[in-house]
Amino acid sequence: MRSSGPCANLADAGDILTLARSVLATASPDAKADRAREVAALWRAGRAPLPMQGVIPADHPARPDRPRLVAPADVPRRRLNSPAGRVALLHAVAHIEFNAIDLAFDMLARYALDDALADEARTAFIDDWIGVGDDEARHFRLITGRLAELGAGYGDFPAHSGLWDAAMATRDSLAGRLAVAPLVLEARGLDVTPGMINRLVSAGDTVSADCLRTIYTEEIGHVAAGARWFRHVAARAGEDPVTWFQALVRKHFSSGLKPPFNAEARLRADLPPEFYETLI
Ligand SMILES: [Fe+2]
Ligand SMILES: [Fe+2]
User: What residues pair up with 214 in beta bridges, in sequence order?
Assistant: First the structure.
């Protein structure tokens, strides 16, 4: 008997790696977020098996026509003392969350069968990154919902592809990807988000501030997943996690890390200062 319910249209779509690639191949922002959540539900319902083989995803996921992608220096500066500035800030966050959906599903599609994972760990690895991808889709919807309340939408401002490009520098290395995507880029989010929340509260926009609070709390879990899997891969390779992390970041993220660090949130994600404090 055919199953019904919200996931019925994907019920025969195939294995989890094919489904993860289908998220990457979806260009429309809302459709990508919806598909991410549907694929997560299928996995959790046991309806998306892990295959023996997978196809490496394309280096560039499908993208909508808007936002227009420009050089980082050409993204307009945000001044939070005006409503337009707050909308621009929320748009930048929406763009990060949009990229984060693809980053989570690329992590899964590219690396779930990687030799760097122990065979018995693959299901737990998918559990974690499906959870991250589902969160990112929800974050994207949360912020675009807030943008809509403010009369704006995702695509209204130019954006840049720095996040995706930085992650793709590690396309051939699970350890490198874990070091750069969750443990450098997402950890950076933990450093800067409390300041954004404070500035939004000061500007009187407590609704937007609450959206960012939700995201901030959940992003600690994403960095924690990165730290957990980085240690797993380091142990399998017989590498010291701290020294290896530093070597990988120097190799794949040569611009260095930007202080000040949110040491408390990083520690809650099991990322102590010895990992990152010398990488400035
Ligand atoms: Fe997020
Ligand atoms: Fe995240």
Answer: none
